[in-house]
Amino acid sequence: MANADNLPKTLSHEEAVRRGRKGGLKAAENNRRRKSMKEAGEILLSLEVKDKQVIQELKNQGIEDEELSNVMAIMYRNIVAAMNGNVKAATFIRDTIGENPSNKVEMNAEVSGEPRIQIFLPDNGRDDGENNT
User: Fold this and answer.
1) How far is CA 37 from the centre of its chain?
2) Which contiguous run of DSSP H or E holds residue 45?
3) Is the pLDDT of residue 18 over 80?
4) I want to staple 86 with a disulfide (CB 3.0 to 4.6 A). Which of 77, 81, 95, 107 is the partner?
5) Band of pLDDT at residue 15, cut at 50, 70 and 90
6) Residue 8 domain-assigned?
């Protein structure tokens, strides 16, 4: 049961400011770390492939030496996996190249005449049928 002994104490203005600042600094630190992880991932993906077997597989597919990156190796290996029936690999490839049908929206429309805006308001029972403006 709640009583004066177990209710949270009200913070002073100074304590609230101190805690808010501390939380803001921690959030900024997390944002910096997240950004640096993204940058690290981009760097690692752009590096040349070092695995001799992967290099040979890519060359057998006609990939030029200057295009031998980790991104190319990952895509190639996922394509091979998809061709062997791996549905997750096929989904990864489809989504990566932007062919996910649930993310595509195509709109075709023609507008003729003067544009009109209609606003439909729900019946809230307050309309008496008269214009009271």
Assistant:
1) 15
2) helix 13-46
3) yes
4) 81
5) confident
6) no
Q: Name the token pair of 124.
A: 């809230």
Q: Is 75 in contact with 96 (CB distance < 8 Å)?
A: yes
Q: Measured between alpha carbons, how far is 46 from 39 in angstroms, rounded to an integer?
A: 11
- Same domain for 57 and 25: no
The C-alpha atoms of residue 89 and residue 96 are separated, in whole angstroms, by 10
pTM listed for this prediction: 0.51
CA distance 46 to 32: 21
**CA-to-CA dists, residue 129 to 58, 117, 126, angstroms:** 75, 22, 9
- Answer yes or no: do 41 and 61 share one domain: no
Domain that holds residue 33: 17-46
Map residue 126 onto helix, strand or coil.
Answer: coil
3-class DSSP assignment, residue 96: helix
CA angle 58, 74, 64 (to 5 degrees): 30
| CB contact set of 95 (below 8 Å; sequence gap of 6+) | 103
Report the C-alpha gap between 80 and 89 in whole angstroms. 9
Pull the structure tokens for residue 123. Answer: 């019946």
